[in-house]
């Protein structure tokens, strides 16, 4: 049970790609949980849409199986489950066939007063055609909301084309570009921490902060996504969207109010202040890696994607610098990779050491204060501070984490909501605060494109790294050149 539930207005939600992985693994479980918590009004409906020729009953059976698989048993209250399943319908439509849209129009016109949400859980090549299709049959109304998710373009040019295609049909205020990292409770708590407390903001600048590390480490390889992943790589798959968004929330100036455009204006300023990494700078400010094989049962990246010549990176580390007054001289180190030591996403704000240590001759040296914001596993915040080791003998210092875990004090049946729960309800509410605006996506590509171009121009291959390791040696060296170390990748 989540804390406070405010029901949303009645809606019809159409999941284009209703039979796919995203729908079954993330969207339906999130909607079920919101329904079980009483947030979804009685008349709301959910329509799965895909080409597979099946009827509503078999779609319901598929959805029921997915919920049993992806929702914990103690959350699957049978009354709530049946009520949710009854909301579901299915249409088999090939969205590329213009003649096929009539049934969707009839379905939605049964409830003209409902808010309409079109969630495009299909490949990005279909985003433009679906938007056009909706317009042609009169479904791109003022009450409609279009939801799209990464990949939002492959580079700046394709992102601009996509933005043009969507905005030729939908107003920017009706387009919801999801980055599910922004729906995570910890990420929103980062904003509360910064802007609802007087404590941190005076420290939040180059005078007090030494550097920032943002890590998204995965323990698995590319698996079945190999053919897509090899065209993208870690920089497009993770950095351009998730890591850069986290960097923006950390680095932005306080918005004048907690409002979608005020917040997004501030994020955009950060994106525009990112120092370009071009030419030979890629050799010093970035590192690329590819995981190696580990025995016959653990194939290398190249074997998994079936492309022995691939130069696509399964690991990337970037030293990003923000050219503005607040952050001048404070590096933001970003790293993400597959087949690393552990599954972990963390933002670490590493503060400067005290100007002078009065404990200079102690055996246990002082360590910098670190604010660690964990996105997974165990979402929460920790502030590492130095304390005196208790006991009468001597005076030793000890680094102690002050745990600010959110579940604390919430009762035993509280659970951390999934990001999609929050984001889906925000779409229905018409709140775009946690969604990316088109100009943000383009600004992020404007910073990413030259890095990829410089990699290509260098002709160099990514460095191999052992599966289960911390990544390429060159990434450790990049930090060492700056007199710093990466934080441990651990759960
Ligand atoms: P998926 O499992 O391949 O599902 C694609 C869905 O689209 C299926 O339901 C498919 O059903 C339907 N579809 C394909 N062509 C269609 C057409 N012409 N007309 C109507 N329906 C069509 O893919 P996914 O993993 O769910 O991902 C969907 C999108 O979300 C992708 O762009 C992906 O990059 C993005 N995404 C996914 C995740 C995730 O966790 N899976 C996370 C972030 C972003 P039929 O074959 O029956 O038509």
From TrEMBL:
Keyword annotations of the record: Carbohydrate metabolism, Glucose metabolism, NADP, Oxidoreductase
Domain Glucose-6-phosphate dehydrogenase NAD-binding, chain residue ranges per copy: 14-189
Biological classification of the source: Bacteria, Pseudomonadati, Pseudomonadota, Gammaproteobacteria, Thiotrichales
Molecular function as annotated in GO: glucose-6-phosphate dehydrogenase activity; NADP binding
CC terms in the record's Gene Ontology section: cytosol
Transmembrane stretches, start-end: none
HAMAP family, A to Z: G6PD (MF_00966)
Domain Glucose-6-phosphate dehydrogenase C-terminal: residue ranges: 191-487
Binding site for NADP(+): 51, 94-95, 150
Protein name stated in the entry: Glucose-6-phosphate 1-dehydrogenase
Role description: Catalyzes the oxidation of glucose 6-phosphate to 6-phosphogluconolactone.
Pathway given in the UniProt record: Carbohydrate degradation; pentose phosphate pathway; D-ribulose 5-phosphate from D-glucose 6-phosphate (oxidative stage): step 1/3
Gene name of the encoded protein: zwf
Catalytic activity as recorded in UniProt: D-glucose 6-phosphate + NADP(+) = 6-phospho-D-glucono-1,5-lactone + NADPH + H(+)
InterPro entries tied to this protein: G6P_DH, G6P_DH_AS, G6P_DH_C, G6P_DH_NAD-bd, NAD(P)-bd_dom_sf
Residues forming the catalytic site: 242 (proton acceptor)
Entry-linked Pfam families: G6PD_C (PF02781), G6PD_N (PF00479)
Binding site for substrate: 180, 184, 218, 237, 338
Enzyme Commission numbers on file: 1.1.1.49
Family: Belongs to the glucose-6-phosphate dehydrogenase family.
GO biological process: glucose metabolic process; pentose-phosphate shunt, oxidative branch
């Amino acid at each position: 049970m989540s804390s406070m539930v405010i029901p949303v207005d009645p809606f019809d939600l159409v999941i284009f790609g209703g039979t796919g992985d995203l729908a079954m693994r993330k969207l339906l479980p999130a909607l079920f949980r919101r329904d079980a918590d009483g947030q979804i009004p009685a008349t709301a409906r959910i329509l799965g849409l895909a080409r597979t020729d099946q009827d509503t009953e078999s779609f319901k059976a598929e959805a029921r199986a997915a919920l049993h698989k992806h929702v914990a048993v103690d959350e699957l209250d049978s009354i709530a489950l049946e009520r949710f399943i009854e909301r579901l319908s299915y249409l088999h439509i090939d969205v590329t066939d213009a003649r096929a849209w009539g049934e969707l129009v009839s379905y939605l016109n049964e409830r003209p007063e409902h808010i309409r949400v079109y969630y495009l859980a299909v490949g990005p090549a279909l985003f433009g055609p679906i938007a056009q299709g909706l317009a042609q049959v009169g479904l791109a109304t003022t009450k409609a909301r279009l939801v799209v998710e990464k990949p939002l373009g492959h580079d700046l040019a394709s992102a601009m084309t996509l933005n043009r295609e969507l905005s030729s049909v939908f107003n920017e205020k009706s387009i919801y570009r999801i980055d599910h990292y922004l729906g995570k409770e910890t990420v929103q708590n980062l904003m509360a921490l910064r802007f609802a407390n007087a404590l941190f903001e005076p420290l939040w600048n180059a005078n007090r902060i030494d550097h920032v590390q943002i890590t998204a480490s995965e323990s698995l390889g590319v698996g079945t996504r190999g053919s897509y992943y090899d065209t993208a790589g870690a920089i497009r798959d993770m950095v351009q969207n998730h890591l850069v968004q986290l960097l923006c929330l950390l680095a932005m100036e306080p918005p004048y109010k907690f409002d979608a455009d005020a917040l997004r204006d501030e994020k955009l300023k950060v994106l525009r202040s990112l120092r370009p990494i071009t030419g030979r700078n890629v050799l010093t400010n970035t590192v690329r890696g590819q995981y190696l094989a580990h025995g016959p049962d653990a194939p290398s990246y190249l074997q998994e994607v079936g492309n022995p010549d691939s130069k696509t990176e399964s690991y990337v580390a970037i030293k990003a610098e923000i050219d503005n007054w607040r952050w001048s001289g404070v590096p933001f180190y970003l790293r993400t990779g597959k087949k690393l030591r552990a599954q972990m996403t963390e933002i670490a704000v590493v503060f400067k050491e005290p100007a002078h240590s009065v404990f200079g001759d102690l055996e246990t040296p002082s360590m910098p204060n670190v604010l660690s914001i964990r996105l997974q596993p165990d979402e929460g915040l920790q502030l590492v501070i130095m304390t005196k080791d208790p006991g009468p003998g001597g005076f030793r210092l000890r680094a102690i984490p002050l745990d600010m875990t959110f579940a604390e004090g919430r009762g035993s049946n509280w659970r951390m909501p999934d990001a999609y729960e929050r984001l889906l309800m925000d779409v229905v509410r018409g709140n775009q605060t946690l969604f990316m605006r088109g100009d943000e996506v383009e600004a992020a590509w404007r910073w990413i494109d030259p890095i990829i171009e410089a990699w290509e121009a260098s002709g160099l291959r990514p460095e191999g790294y052992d599966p289960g390791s911390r990544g390429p040696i060159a990434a450790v060296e990049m930090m060492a050149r700056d007199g710093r170390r990466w934080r441990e990748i651990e759960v």
